[in-house]
Amino acid sequence: MTSILVAREAPPLLLHTMRLADTMLVLGHRLSEWTGQAPMLEEELALANAALDYIGQARSLYAYAATLEGKGRTEDDLAYLRDAPDWRNWLIAELPNGDFARTVLRQFLVAAFLQPWWHALAQSKDATLAAIAAKAEKEAAYHLRHAGEWVIRLGDGTAESHRRMEAALEELWSYTGEMFEADAADRALIEAGIVPDPETLRGAWADMVGRVLAEATLAMPGPAWMQSGGRRGVHTEHLGHLLAVMQHLPRSYPGAVW
Amino acid sequence: MSVLAFDREALRRRALQAAGTVVDPEIPVLTIADLGVLREARVTEEGGVEVDITPTYSGCPAMRMIALQVEEALRAAGLPAPRVRLVLSPAWTTDWMTEAGRDRLRAYGIAPPAPRATRRGLFGLEEAVACPRCGSTATETLSEFGSTACKALRRCTACREPFDHFKCL
Q: What is the pTM of this model?
C-alpha cells in the first residue's frame, strides 16, 4: 500500500490534519470496543455515543485531508488502507482500554486537552479546520464533563475503585506529554495562525486535571519522563492489532460498500 | 427584479419547502426544518437546486439518510437536478429548533432543549428540565448520553417515569 505520510516532505497542513484525524479515529475505535461490554447500559450508550462523535470528527478531517492530498482518495481509503507506520495518532489513543477506570481516565485526560484545543482551533485562518473545530468543541465539552464526573466518582469512591483509578493514572500519565508536542511542521502552521500552539493550552489543561484529581482524592503526578512517537509513526505494538480488526473488512473485500 | 430572478427565487423557495417536509428518521415528529438541520437552498448556475443541511453532531448516523430523503423529496416535487450539500459552519445549535418543534417534541415524550443553549460548567448546577409527561421539574440525570447522540437520559422523581431529554448544544 502506498503511503502518503512517511515522506518527510508531506505538507504541514496535510500532516497535521492526518494527525488529528488518526487520533480521533483510533480513540473512537477503542471506545466502540466497549459496545456490548460496558458495566451498565447507560455507560454503554455513553461510550458508544462518544465513539460516534470521535469517528464523526475523524470523517470530517479525513475528507479534508483527502482534498488536501488531491490524489482522488477518499476518507475510507485513508482510514482503511494504511499500515501502522503511516498512522500519526497520539500513543495514548491506541493503548488498550483496560478496565472502565482506565477508559474514563483516558477520556478525561484527552478531553481536558481537546476541549480548549478545538476552542482555539475554531479561530483558525483555515476555514475548514475552523468549522470542524467549532463543531467538535461542543462535543468535547460533553465528553469532558462525562469523563470528569466518573474520575471523581471512582477516585473518591470505594477502596477498590480508588485503587483502580490510581493504577490507571500511573499507567496513562507518561502518555500525556505527546499532546503538547510541536515539531517543525506544527511550528509552521502555528506561525501562520492555522493551528494553536499546544504549549499555550498547558495551563488550562493542568488546571482542569488538577482540579478533578483533587476532588477525586488522587495525587497529581509530578513532572515525569514522557512517551513520544505516535505523531512520527512510531507506535506501540497495540496499534497493529487495532488496525487488523478495524481494517479487516475493506482489506478482505476490496471495494465493499453498504 | 427581472422575471428570471423572480423564477429563481420561486424555485429556491419551492426547494426549501420540499426539503422542509423531510422528517428526522430517529425523531419522526420533527422535520429537518423544525430541527434547524435544513439551512439554505439555492439555484445553481446550471439551473438545478442545491440544498444545504448541517449535522447535529459530527457523527450523527442519520445524516446520510436525511441527505437521501431530501434528494428524493426534491425530485418528487419536480425540482431540477437536485443536489444536497453538507455544511459544518456555523455549527448547529439547539437554539435553531422552532417553537412548534419544541412543542411536538414534548408531546412525543421527549423533553425539549432549553430555549437558549447554556454551557453548564463542569460539575455546575444542573438546568431544570420538566418531565414531558407530568410537567414536574423534579427530574434527575440518569446518563449524559441517551438513545441517540442528541439526547440525554433522565428520570422524573415525581411520576417515576424515565424520559429522553434533547440536549442543549
A: 0.90
Contact B16, B84 (CB under 8 A): no
Cβ-defined contact of A45 to B145 (cutoff 8 Å): yes
Cβ contact B89–A144 (<8 Å): no
> What is B3-92's CATH number, 3.40.50.300, 3.30.300.130, 3.30.565.10, 2.30.30.240?
3.30.300.130
Q: Within 10 A of B52 (CB to CB), how many other CB atoms are there?
A: 16
Q: How far is B16 from chain A, CA to nearest CA, in Å?
A: 23
Structural domain containing residue A78: 12-252
Q: Give the type of residue at A138.
A: K
What number is the ipTM of this complex? 0.80
- Among A61, A135, A257, the strongest candidate for a mutation testing the B interface, having the largest count of B CBs within 10 A, is A135
- CB within 8 Å: B167 and A144: no
Buried b (16+ CB within 10 A) or exposed e, A192-225: eebbbebeebeebbeebbebbbebbebeeeeeee
For residue range B75-107, list pLDDT tens digits in order: 999 999 999 999 998 999 999 999 999 999 999
